[in-house]
């Protein structure tokens, strides 16, 4: 790529170059494996719950499911976290929770993901069980024990407290800070 080359209508080109340089420095092959992803974020040696969560995040970013995050997938992930509209983020969260990919989240899936997130983030003022029960109580409108994407998005968007809680709990900006700063062990 030439130094002045940028896409038409592409505002933050210097930012993309910054990420590209960082990505290629950390990952010269241009293909980030799960192992490298964990290493980059300083997240090796997690307990099984934390490991499972990081693998889910990795798989969700690995859009073509080839087992690697390439630069375009990496940028898509960064754009989502930094600039994504709330419904895009909620769709992403939903995909992250829907472990079996059946289009619904049940209590077990939400509980296991939230337990894993707590293992990484540490800070929270309610247990994983309390969180899961509260989410279902607030937004499982037909009480079938499962949340569809529509129920999830409309439920979270119509409840400010829940929106704030989900946004804070699943905030990936600390992951991005590590990537931006290039420090491997800052989490």
TrEMBL record:
InterPro entries listed in its UniProt record: EF-hand-dom_pair (IPR011992), EF_Hand_1_Ca_BS (IPR018247), EF_hand_dom (IPR002048), Recoverin (IPR028846)
Keyword rRNA processing: no
Pfam families reported for this sequence: EF-hand_1 (PF00036), EF-hand_7 (PF13499)
GO MF annotation terms: calcium ion binding; calcium sensitive guanylate cyclase activator activity
One annotated Gene Ontology cellular component of this protein: photoreceptor outer segment
SUPFAM superfamilies according to UniProt: EF-hand
Highest taxon, organism lineage: Eukaryota
Parts of the chain that traverse the membrane: none
Sorted UniProt keywords: Calcium, Lipoprotein, Metal-binding, Myristate, Repeat
Annotated PROSITE patterns: EF_HAND_1, EF_HAND_2
Domain EF-hand: 49-84, 85-120, 127-162
Keyword Isomerase in annotation: no
Protein name: GUC1C protein
């Amino acid at each position: 790529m030439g130094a002045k080359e940028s896409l038409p209508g592409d505002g933050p080109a210097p930012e993309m170059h910054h990420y590209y340089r960082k990505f290629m420095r950390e990952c010269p092959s241009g293909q980030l494996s799960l192992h490298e992803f964990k290493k980059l974020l300083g997240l090796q040696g997690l307990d099984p719950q934390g490991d499972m969560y990081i693998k889910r995040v990795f798989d969700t970013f690995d859009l073509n499911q080839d087992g690697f995050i390439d630069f375009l997938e990496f940028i898509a992930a960064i754009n989502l976290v930094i600039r994504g509209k709330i419904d895009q983020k909620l769709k992403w969260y939903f995909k992250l929770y829907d472990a079996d990919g059946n289009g619904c989240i049940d209590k077990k899936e939400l509980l296991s993901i939230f337990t894993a997130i707590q293992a990484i983030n540490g800070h929270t003022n309610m247990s994983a069980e309390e969180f899961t029960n509260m989410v279902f109580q607030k937004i499982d409108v037909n009480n079938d024990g499962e949340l569809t994407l529509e129920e999830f998005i409309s439920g979270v968007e119509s409840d400010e407290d829940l929106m704030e809680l989900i946004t804070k709990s699943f905030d990936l900006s600390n992951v991005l800070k590590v990537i931006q700063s290039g420090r491997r062990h800052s989490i």
